[in-house]
Amino acid sequence: MGGEVAVDGLSKSFGGQNIWRDVSLVLPDGEVSVLLGPSGTGKSVFLKCLIGLLRPEQGSVRLDGVDLVRCSEHQLYAARKQFGVLFQDGALFGSMNLYDNIAFPLREHTRKSEAEIRHLVGEKMELVGLTGAERKLPGELSGGMRKRAGLARALVLEPRIILCDEPDSGLDPVRTAYLAQLLIDLNAQLDTTILIVTHNISVARTVPDNVGMLFRRRLVMFGPREVLLTSDEPAVAQFLRGRRIGPIGMSEEKDSATMAAEAEREPPGRPEEPAGVVPQLEPTPGLPPRRAVRRRKDRVMRVLHQLPEQAQRGILAGLTEGERRHYGVSVPQPRGYRA
Ligand SMILES: Nc1ncnc2c1ncn2[C@@H]1O[C@H](COP(=O)(O)OP(=O)(O)OP(=O)(O)O)[C@@H](O)[C@H]1O
């Protein structure tokens, strides 16, 4: 069972340096969300603010009616146990074998017996496909195994929300694809709310239910995947295609003179089509369906008319015949179609 995290008007600075301001979004219960953004836009800082490791100056982060920005230490301690975090480097203790690394949060935060710990650690190692690697030291593992071990440790206190900071960093495309599938499979099995911070466009296109992007100290957008994936907002469109031309520069952003010079150099031609909506990953055959899928469809269909037209098309195109009947909507026609 997941939980809804509601972020409202959040702003964070270090000294005089504002990182981002007025960030509002909701991580819907049990859904998978991705937060994109060029390097240095404050994605990791955002994750740390969610769990109270950093304190924003303004705004709120609500879980179960408790504002984690302003609550007591005691409430924050309890709330933190609802979050499991996969840090960028896995954050494993180099001198401990995998079993002890994964058992660590249980030994620190619970009074469970060693027999119970053995059961829970074994269960989580199996979930991430690491059974048999209990005695290995982190230094003996591949990058992908270290990420999965970090994930097992993030899961061991049975959190309702999982935060993953660049789970794909340092992994080849094949290992990244396995990790993406693992996150979808975990969501199907556990119904946990998941937030993934990444630069990886393929992960952003295929894994989440919702996508957002931080740029120029703001949350450019956050919402159903079809909105961002069909967006023609310049920074979003540039990021999704991994292009040099656009507002995102070498060190975060370009000034208007540089952008104007680029526009002059760019050969005239038809504007590119949006990156487009591709099918979302499904759980591995044999696993239960993701419970969030139905909840999300109901939620998105309630606000469909408020979304941009191209996003609406993407959403309607993804419905089955039965779902179209259920929601009372018709088959989307191609652009320019006249009945
Ligand atoms: N504890 C801190 N004190 C001061 N500045 C910090 C602190 N933590 C992060 N920053 C600054 O905040 C900015 C955003 O950092 P952050 O690591 O969140 O970016 P990011 O979007 O996750 O980047 P990347 O994608 O490269 O990991 C950076 O300029 C960083 O130097």
Automatic annotation (TrEMBL):
Start and end residues of each stretch annotated as Disordered: 248-298, 311-339
ABC transporter domain: residues covered: 5-241
One MF annotation (Gene Ontology) recorded for this entry: ATP binding
SMART domains: AAA (SM00382)
Bias (Basic and acidic residues) ranges: 251-273
Domain of life of the source: Bacteria
Protein name as annotated: Phospholipid/cholesterol/gamma-HCH transport system ATP-binding protein
Lineage summary: Bacteria, Bacillati, Actinomycetota, Actinomycetes, Pseudonocardiales
